[in-house]
Amino acid sequence: MKSALLDLSQEAKLSKSIRQIYYDFKNLGYFDQYGSSCVAMAALLSNLLEKQGFNTKVQACYAIVKNSDQQFFLGYKGYAKTGQVEGHAVCIVNDRILIDFGLGNVRKDFDSQFHRAICSDIDMNPSQGYVARIHINEKTTIEWHTDWIPPDIANEYMQQAPLLEPIISNYERYKKNRIAFLIKQLVFQNRKISVNNIVRI
């Protein structure tokens, strides 16, 4: 399984925006820093896509990842670890598309090769209680449910909102000159390799 973006959206304009934001976040290290903070990631996406003219909202939910012999609950009641808030959050666009950039805990605690980000059309099934369901491969699926709404997500969102401003400002600066950032990053990596080689000698 490729640990990258799984984009199943049928909307070309949104898909283009999501792919750009995904690679920007990857280059900036946001998945490493904030990938396990689903509220922050959903709020960041909502903010950035809203600026591009999309209608967005942060949706509280929980997710279930299933494979042939086990399942992993992301954000469901009773499954939060010490220091974690019960619940999960995703970004909903135009009431038709679900975007989840907060899958870090799935990668950390269940499958290290799971996708960092997923974008999918909403496919509600009230009888099953899920908002969207995706077949990752023959053995693995992920579902997002809203039949139980995490009570602490709203408070978590309010607490994190002011903390997102410097992250968004940093992203906006990066956007103005992506090429310069990538060149600087490449030079730094080359210097690091050279230093490592010297140390080995």
How many extended strands? 8
What is the domain total for the residues? 1
User: How much of the polypeptide forms β-strand, as a percent range?
Assistant: 15-25%
State the order of secondary-structure elements, H for helix, E for strand. Answer: EHHHEEEEHEEEHH
Radius of gyration: 18 Å
What share of the residues lie within helices?
Answer: 40-55%
What characterizes the major β-sheet? Answer: 8 strands, mixed
How far is the N terminus from the C terminus?
A: 37 Å
How are the SSEs placed, and which strands pair?
Blueprint (H helix, E strand, L loop, with lengths): L4 E3 L4 H17 L1 H5 L3 H14 L4 E11 L4 E4 L13 E6 L3 E4 L3 H6 L7 E5 L8 E6 L5 E5 L7 H24 L1 H23 L1
Parallel strand pairs: 1-6
Antiparallel strand pairs: 2-3, 2-4, 2-8, 4-5, 5-6, 7-8
Helix pairs in contact: 3-5
